[in-house]
Automatic annotation (TrEMBL):
SUPFAM superfamilies: NAD(P)-binding Rossmann-fold domains
Transmembrane spans: 21-37
GO MF entries: oxidoreductase activity, acting on the CH-OH group of donors, NAD or NADP as acceptor
The protein's name: Short-chain dehydrogenase/reductase family 16C member 6
Length: 335
């Protein structure tokens, strides 16, 4: 029997007195009850969340039609699209042009698609650079007029483990994917307030509420976009001079573009969607003239219930869907 001494008193490692045994039993029982409660609680959240999403799927179009203020005239709109040269930004720009709007594309790459010169103007701009953004928005205001809609869409990803990422890589992902929303909104907002109208739309992601190894910086930036939207919406709504400015956010699931080529996702949880589908939903939000938050598809909203589950449940779900290997075959576009 092993023993050790404390202040010359011999204490045996296997000498548990009855009160200690009782404490261990009670603590174990309490832990078991807590675990079962957490499991049933998580199931309850998932089931109730699903039941809530079903009626919302059918009722939201009716609710949206009630909120429309007046017929929307696209020909009077001046829309800024960041990252409008490819992906969702490209499809959104093409759709806006077809509806008669004027579009200012902010991107470091020039659009490769054909567009009417009278409706679209390209500005070479690094949206992750505040000085570049400020001067570009001033040019847009002089050349096209006061922007009425802003689509914060630009984003980049660097698939690499966090510990192996350089400071430059981390800063770049954050500045383009998150800070661009802050900088462009900050430059455009005073013009919208002065014009007493405007609509700001942020392109977040379902990854605003979950994350993946090797894409920690990207997921964190998208989570910041969600927080930025929520705070901005509340702040603008509480000030009389900015209460006419609408704020919306979109949370797409896995978009089948070159950005995330090779990523494997559970098909029954995250349906593949196209850039065209996302662009169409963004246009519907603008046409509705009312701030909105939208998951595409709507079932993506279930991730919010996952996010409030206890950590032990999230870890089990994480292992169940093998999150560690989803980016192993990544072949997407990286800067």
């Amino acid at each position: 029997m092993n023993s050790y001494k404390i202040n010359n008193a011999s204490v045996f490692s296997n000498n548990l007195n009855p009160p200690n045994v009782l404490s261990v039993i009670l603590c174990s029982a309490a832990a078991l009850v807590l675990l079962l409660t957490s499991i049933f609680g998580a199931l309850w959240f998932l089931i109730s969340g699903t039941l809530m999403l079903i009626p919302l799927t059918f009722l939201s179009p009716i609710y949206d039609s009630i909120k429309i203020k007046k017929r929307f005239d696209w020909t009077q709109q001046i829309i800024i699209v960041t990252g409008g040269s490819n992906g969702v930004g490209e499809q959104a720009t093409k759709l806006f042009l077809s509806l008669g709007a004027k579009v200012a594309v902010l991107d470091i790459n020039k659009p490769n698609y054909e567009f009417p010169q009278s409706q679209l103007k390209y500005y070479r701009c690094d949206a992750g650079n505040s000085k570049d953004v400020e001067s570009t928005v001033k040019s847009i205001s002089k050349e096209l007029g006061t922007p009425t809609v802003l689509l914060n869409n630009v984003g980049i990803v660097k698939v690499k483990s966090f510990i192996d990422s350089s400071y430059e890589e981390l800063d770049r992902v954050n500045s383009v994917t998150f800070s661009s929303h802050v900088y462009v909104t900050r430059a455009v907002l005073p013009l919208m307030i002065q014009n007493r109208k405007g609509h700001i739309i942020s392109m977040a992601s379902i990854l605003s509420f979950s994350t993946h190894p090797k894409a920690v910086s990207y997921c964190a930036a998208k989570a910041a976009v969600h927080s930025f939207y929520e705070g901005l919406r509340q702040e603008l709504g509480s000030r009389p001079e900015s209460s006419n400015i609408e704020v919306s956010v979109v949370y797409p699931s896995h978009i089948s573009t070159g950005m995330f080529a090779g990523v494997t996702v559970p098909k029954f949880l995250m349906l593949d969607i196209t850039s065209e589908q996302v662009a169409e939903q963004v246009a519907k939000i603008i046409d509705g003239q009312k701030g909105k938050e939208m998951f595409i598809p709507k079932t993506g909203g279930l991730v919010m219930f996952y996010n409030i589950c206890p950590r032990i449940i999230r870890d089990k779900v994480y292992l169940l869907f093998n999150n560690n290997s989803r980016l192993d075959n990544f072949k997407g576009n990286q800067w």
